[in-house]
């Protein structure tokens, strides 16, 4: 890989959403030449990147043409054309995370096999091809059927409560997973550079909105025992070591009621569960991703204060040019850090931004987060 | 002024250098629509701003045309066309800092008069129009002659040691200032919003390079007494209150050998002496400037750790495409925060970036800064 040692060093990013936007903010510190590919001409990144290309990151030619003059190509979304990335890698472009790993993670079936092969604890599962096969597993209901590919943000996931639900199941390559009666959902973000250095951030605990399958409130430190914290971090670092990936990896986990940690799924990129690291840690997840893919030393992951992150979603009942309500009230506390995603149009449940709240005490930060949730509204 | 409540809110920035670039990084958090005007098509900001206009910020028409569709116009350099800004203000564009204040600060003579009229301590001075007038003041030599306008980064400043230097003096409107035998150079950054709230950051102490008249090393907290710290902050806040300015103001000061604080000059914008606030303070100077001009509540200025900032200048003997030497060595410590300004071409003494070093102990941070200075080189 070409060494990063000038402003002419070219970093290509597939995907131009809010994760890309925050990656740009961090990359600006390194003064590198940024290129972004996204099909939406009004994507968040389009406002902040001279070399913004409109095109599909799922299309072979678009990705290949975009990437061939880059020094490093990375992603902010995993749903990209892997064949083009493989070709770029054979032609000498550094592609991080490596195309084979993106390919593995794109397929929930391969992910599960990888966990089993590498003794990574995960919920038991079977492969399903036709929904009729589900009838063999009625004893294990309730269970979760997940499409192997293209499931994202809750799409492609179906909860089967009883035999009556089988008719609504998927007849595409999928997995049927035992439904874990979990205590908590956790995530650990790990990073690895080409030298093989690995770091882990502290565990974050996620509270999901039961209706939207989106993280509603995330906090760190997690309310778990020191042993559970240690165990979660070790598992995440083991996943990273076994993958031999270069870049940033979010490892989503369940803590079961019996105290066991099970890996749920992986995201090989900056992640919603790491937004708080921008203000709460010495090194943000975005800078860490850049350090990893530029083969610089990895940064300190220390959590400096308790942090809570909330997603700011478009209010139900409003579609159109977005109006921010309540910014004055919430910015009065400067430990409340607002990130708005430069999206002109709101619609119900659209991710329009996030807010990170810091405090020396977690409970106070959670209280402030609830105040922010009650005040900051996105309407039209 | 139109209320900031949507992604369609338009902020125009006159000047597209590194201060503008760091302002963009902060403005991205608020997701506002940014526009930048700079004569250099390759200015730092050009890489990170969709609405980057090439044009002169000193030209009436360029500034007027650029500003007339903005909601707020601000500056990252004070050498701008004030007449156009005045016209924009009369047409309802919010111009912050106010054009009259930029005009006052552009003229070192008016600045000095303002200090005298408002009982702000400053070095004694007289007005000079022709160099022959200098002969009247030989008793007060050594003294400093400064052009009233267009002096910047040491240009337009002439040290008169003895009567023999008079022939080399300026015959343009200027001031002759008593040469202060100062102990230290200090700066205080203050901010004020339209509601009239004022905040001050902790005092920073500057070590200047004797040859280049550029800050070589800056640190906060300053090595001064609590009374001097308090006095410096009060004077800076008084300047801001008397100006009734909206925005961010850097107040440069001398601490004399007798312990007196004298105001040297003002910069009505984010400033070199506030770079460290990005990592060292709850609210960075860039966010504070935005909070002020968007009429949001001002943020907490608390210094969280001791901070040292060093400017990274192009090495002597190298002109051409810039190469960064030593990035690996210095980024091994993630309390060393690198900011490279995306400038493709280096030349001797060109400001190519800065580095902020944090530590719980100031002396350790200074030691690390000296290590960074010895390792990080910009060559071609």
Describe the structure.
By secondary structure, chain A is of the alpha+beta class. Chain A is built from ten helices and 22 strands. In chain A, the strands form five sheets. In chain A, strands 10, 11, 12, 13, 14, 15, 16, 19 and 21 form a nine-stranded antiparallel beta sheet that branches. In chain A, strand 4, helix 3 and strand 5 form a beta-alpha-beta unit. The longest helix of chain A is centred in the middle third of the chain and has 18 residues. Chain A is globular and about 60 Å long. The termini of chain A are far apart. The mean pLDDT of chain A is 95. Chains A and B meet through helix 1, strand 18, helix 9 and strand 19 of A and helix 1, strand 18, helix 9 and strand 19 of B.
Key descriptive features of the protein:
homodimer, 380 residues, alpha+beta, nine-stranded antiparallel sheet, five-stranded parallel sheet, 10 helices, 26% helix, globular
What kind of assembly state do the chains in view correspond to?
A: homodimer
Number of helices of chain A: 10
Largest beta-sheet details of chain A: 9 strands, antiparallel
Number of strands of chain A: 22
Report the structural category of chain A: alpha+beta
**Rg on CA atoms of chain A, Å:** 21 Å
Q: Which segments of chain A are poorly predicted (pLDDT under 50) over 5 or more consecutive residues?
A: none
Short description:
The structure is a homodimer of 380-residue chains. Chain A is an alpha+beta fold.
């Amino acid at each position: 890989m070409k060494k990063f040692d000038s402003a002419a060093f070219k970093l290509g990013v597939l995907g131009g959403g809010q994760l890309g936007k925050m990656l740009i903010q961090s990359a600006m510190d390194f003064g590198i030449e940024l290129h972004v590919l996204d099909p939406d001409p009004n994507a968040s990144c389009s406002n902040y990147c001279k070399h913004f290309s409109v095109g599909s990151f799922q299309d072979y030619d678009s990705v290949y043409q975009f990437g061939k003059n880059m020094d490093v190509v990375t992603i902010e979304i995993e749903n990209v054309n892997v064949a083009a990335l493989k070709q770029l890698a054979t032609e000498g472009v550094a592609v991080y995370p490596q195309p084979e790993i993106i390919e593995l993670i794109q397929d929930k079936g391969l992910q599960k096999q990888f966990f089993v092969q590498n003794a990574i604890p995960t919920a038991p599962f079977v492969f399903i091809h036709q929904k009729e096969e589900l009838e063999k597993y009625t004893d294990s209901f309730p269970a979760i059927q997940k499409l192997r590919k293209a499931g994202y943000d809750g799409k492609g996931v179906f909860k089967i409560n009883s035999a009556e639900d089988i008719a609504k199941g998927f007849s595409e390559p999928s997995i049927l997973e035992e439904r874990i009666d979990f205590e908590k959902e956790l995530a650990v973000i790990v990073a690895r550079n080409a030298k093989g250095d690995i770091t882990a951030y502290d565990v974050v605990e996620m509270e999901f909105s039961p209706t939207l399958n989106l993280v509603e409130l995330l906090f760190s430190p997690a309310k778990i025992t020191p042993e559970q914290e240690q165990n979660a971090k070790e598992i995440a670092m083991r996943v990273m070591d076994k993958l031999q990936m270069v870049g940033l990896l979010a490892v989503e986990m369940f803590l079961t009621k019996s105290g066991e940690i099970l890996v749920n799924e992986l995201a090989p990129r900056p992640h919603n569960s790491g937004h708080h690291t921008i203000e709460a840690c010495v090194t943000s997840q975005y800078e860490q991703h850049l350090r990893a893919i530029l083969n610089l030393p990895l940064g300190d992951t220390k959590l400096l204060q308790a942090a809570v992150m909330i997603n700011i979603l478009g209010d139900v009942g409003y579609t159109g040019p977005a109006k921010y309500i309540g910014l004055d009230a919430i910015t009065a506390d400067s430990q409340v850090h607002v990130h708005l995603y430069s999206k002109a149009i709101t619609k119900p449940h659209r991710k329009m931004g996030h807010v990170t709240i810091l405090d020396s005490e977690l409970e106070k930060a959670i209280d402030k987060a609830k105040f922010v949730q009650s005040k900051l509204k996105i309407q039209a």
